[in-house]
Write a structure and sequence with these properties.
By secondary structure, this protein is an alpha/beta fold. It folds into 2 domains: about 170 residues, P-loop containing nucleotide triphosphate hydrolases (Rossmann fold); about 70 residues, no CATH class. About 35% of the residues lie in helices and about 20% in strands. It contains 8 helices and 9 strands. It has a 6-stranded mixed sheet, with helices on both faces. A hairpin with a 5-residue loop joins strand 1 and strand 2. Helix 2 packs across helix 3, helix 2 runs parallel beside helix 4 and helix 3 packs across helix 4. The longest helix has 20 residues.
Length: about 270
């Protein structure tokens, strides 16, 4: 894995080749989408509403099949199945309301049939990492929105995925909570050396988090352009307040405006 903040030229961890997606009602969500994601990257997918960002994420996760094109996964040395390499964090936490924080995070390991004692150790470790160790016995209704999202992230991380897919996980949160979770997510990403593809509508969030912003054109979605955020990690409030951050935000905003102006299907 190259140093954080540098350009990664290794072979892709996953690649979308000419991916298209048409729904039964005739809507073409994606057309000719080409995207490569390399190990250790933090890639933000940015684009207007309806441009197929979430659809692309679901196709990578195997939750939806492309109508055309292919998703390529180079075989890893351990020949692990694709589904075991992926963690997915949805827009809503989608927690089981009747289960404790501990049991919600335990669920993926239970479904895999992992031994209870070993699974419990992994759950405790990931809860500590997301700052929820003291809330292991709490229920979702007792948690704030930000804490529920932390549980969702912990559940995705407990399987130690190679690739973490995140579909606008912080969109419904207030700005203060969102900033805090952005910082926490970057710390976890650096510590775990995983790969993240993060869907967002926010130019500011995409620049702060990612090593590369992929700007998608209006529906049918395809890559319009990419902007490398070649600023080293770790990033903090000093970066948010810097002229460099503001310049990157203007650049990405201008790139997004051009992608929207180029238009697409109605």
């Amino acid at each position: 894995m190259p140093p954080l903040g540098t350009v990664n030229t290794s072979a892709p961890l996953v690649a979308l080749r000419g991916v298209g997606k048409a729904f039964p009602n005739g809507t073409r969500a994606l057309a000719g989408l080409d995207l490569e994601v390399r190990s250790g990257e933090f890639v933000a997918l940015l684009g207007p509403s309806g441009c197929g960002k979430s659809t692309a994420l679901r196709i990578v996760a195997g939750l939806s099949e492309p109508s055309e094109g292919a998703v390529e996964w180079p075989p890893p040395a351990n020949a692990a199945p694709v589904e075991s390499r992926i963690g997915f964090v949805f827009q809503e936490p989608t927690l089981m309301p009747w289960a404790s924080v501990f049991d919600n995070v335990m669920l993926p390991l239970k479904l895999k049939g992992e031994a209870a004692a070993q699974a419990a150790v992994r759950v405790e470790a990931v809860l500590d990492r997301v700052g929820l160790a003291a809330f292991r016995h709490s229920y979702p209704r007792e948690l704030s929105g930000g804490m529920r999202m932390r549980v969702s992230i912990a559940r995705a991380l407990v399987t130690e995925p190679q690739l973490l897919l995140m579909d606008e996980p912080f969109a419904a949160l207030d700005e203060i909570t969102r900033f805090k979770l952005n910082d926490d997510l970057l710390r976890m990403w650096q510590a775990l050396c995983t790969t993240i593809v993060f869907v967002t509508h926010s130019v500011f969030e995409s620049v702060y988090l990612s090593s590369r912003v992929v700007v998608m054109a209006a529906r049918p979605g395809r890559v319009s352009s990419e902007v490398a955020i070649d600023v080293p990690y770790p990033r903090d409030q000093n970066f948010r307040a810097s002229a460099e951050y503001a310049a990157f935000c203007r650049r990405v905003s201008d790139t997004l405006a051009r992608a929207i102006a180029a238009g697409g299907d109605a």
